[in-house]
Amino acid sequence: MAAASLLPLLLLLILLPASNAIYCDEDDCYDLLGLKQDANASEIKKAYYKLSLKHHPDKNPDPESRKLFVKIANAYEILKDESTREQYDYAIAHPEEVFYNTAQYYRAYYGHKTDPSAVLIGLLLIVSAFQYINQMTRYNQAVESVKQTPAYRNRLKALEFERTGGISSKKKGYKQPDKKVEEAANNEVELQIHGVEKPSVWRLYGVQFILLPYSIGKVLTWEICWFWRYRVKKLPYAWEDACYLTQTSLNIPANAWKNIDESRKEDLVVRRLWEKSNMERYIAETRKEAKRRR
Question: Can you cite a GO biological process for this protein (predicted)?
């Protein structure tokens, strides 16, 4: 069993090239430039220019010389950069660390060529696109579900009745509503869709990330104004702020709060439910009312 489990790893190690071979194939980068491993940057540069005068395609049209020049240029690119040269020297000294050396090579050659900001922007665009498609799909499904309710069909009939001037069809059976009537129903009837909001570009992750500095500044300004107005100056709460405190105290979503009757809102705000004692009294009254109805 142990031998069988080690077999895939052994095959992978056999198929993988040596650590230093990924840099200059089977050649040694220093040997290609005719240098020793302790050569300095000046010596590396001089060796490359000397060999390029001999093997550059413009100087030497021989195909073999052209192939050799490609190897020389690659070796120079590796050794002229201190970080890649350090990684190459490490690969020579530690050939057994195949996976680490391979990862370092691809990171050096491909990682720095990719602009992190471009990657971030691309990722945000992809995520935002999927987010918008998901939101649109969920919203359309919720709308179609609401359209099957009796309340929506009754509203269609009422609009059709108004459009025809009070003359309704006496034919039995279901009649497909006029397109204009259906469009009017879609525009006039406020669909009560809980847990699903109409898609908006302003709620996409990409847009929110771009507007993050503005959003942070807006929140800080709001917090400072709130602290100054209600904590320092001890002013009474404005209607909008009292509604906000009531809504958050009852954990009511913004859309649900908008749909509450104004008289009911006023009753809740007057109770000052953001104060602990008032909230406890309100909960007790609600429970008592629920028991009475049972």
Answer: protein folding
